[in-house]
Amino acid sequence: MYYVFDMDGVLVRSASVTIHAAQLILEEYGITAEPSEFAPFIGAGEARFIGGVAEAHGLTYEPVMKEKLNNKYAEIVGDELPPYPSGKKVLEKLREQGVKFALASSADMVKIKANLGAAGIPLDWFSAIASGEDAERKKPAPDIFLAAAKRLGADPKDCLVVEDAINGIEAARSAGMKVVTITSYFDRETLKKHQPDAVIDDLMELLEVEIK
Predict the structure, then answer these.
(1) Are the CB atoms for 143 and 153 separated by under 8 Å?
(2) Helix residue ranges per DSSP H, 97-142
(3) pTM for this model (two decimals)
(4) Are strands 128-130 and 101-104 parallel, antiparallel or unpaired?
(5) In this model, does residue 72 exceed pLDDT 80?
(6) Helix locations, 28-62, DSSP H
(7) 43, 137, 151, 160 - which has most CB atoms within 10 Å?
(8) What is the pLDDT of residues 22-59, one digit of tens each?
(9) Contact 81, 17 (CB under 8 A)
(10) Where are any strands of DSSP class E within the chain?
């Protein structure tokens, strides 16, 4: 079994930082956004994350908004990223066991590097990395997971995706992969409605999950 990890909400608990950065950028456009407004766009990439909320307030999305979001995120992540040791510990355990794993994040590489750097997770631990720049269609489309599997040299049916978002569950299913979800942002009952293979509350539980 190959593991394919989402990043935000799985290896790092970054939702609060991303939301704060997006709120700060939208304030520049005269928009005051509540954290709950971003929920439908979690896992869909930065453009949709900030653009979806902007459009809900009647503002047309412009690519510069994503650039501003990434820059603001990189500026504040070092101070605001909540500690979450489970991400690094689980990857260390899998490495010890000789398990190959990939990273498949809708985020651009600039954000991936900022997050993993803040969490102390080396990029070269991953056998493959697929970022938002590698998939024209974002989650819930399966493209990013299929790109990660190809780079791993793995059949999609032999891959287990680790996700926290509804968009991610749907993307994994569309890719023909198994999926475990973690209750980082969405509660257990909400996640179960989308029929993942398992739901966990802490990433360390992944090491005990058995998926047929």
Answers:
(1) no
(2) 109-119
(3) 0.83
(4) parallel
(5) yes
(6) 46-56
(7) 43
(8) 999 999 999 999 999 998 998 787 889 999 999 999 99
(9) yes
(10) 2-5, 101-104, 128-130, 159-163, 178-182, 198-200
Residue identified by tokens 């047929």 is: 212
Q: Is the dihedral of CA 43, 100, 92, 78 positive or negative?
A: negative
- What residues are annotated to the active site? 6, 8
* Contact present, 200 and 180 (Cβ < 8 Å): yes
**78-116 pLDDT, tens digit each:** 888 888 899 999 999 999 999 999 999 988 898 899 889
Whether residue 212 is predicted with pLDDT greater than 80 in this model: the reply is: no
Angstrom distance (rounded) from CA 10 to CA 181? 9
Q: What is the amino acid identity at position 95?
A: R
Which tokens belong to 15? 């939702």
Q: Which residue, among 50, 31, 30, has the nearest Cα to 40 in the 3D structure?
A: 50
Per-residue tokens: 119 = 């969490």
pLDDT at 82: 84
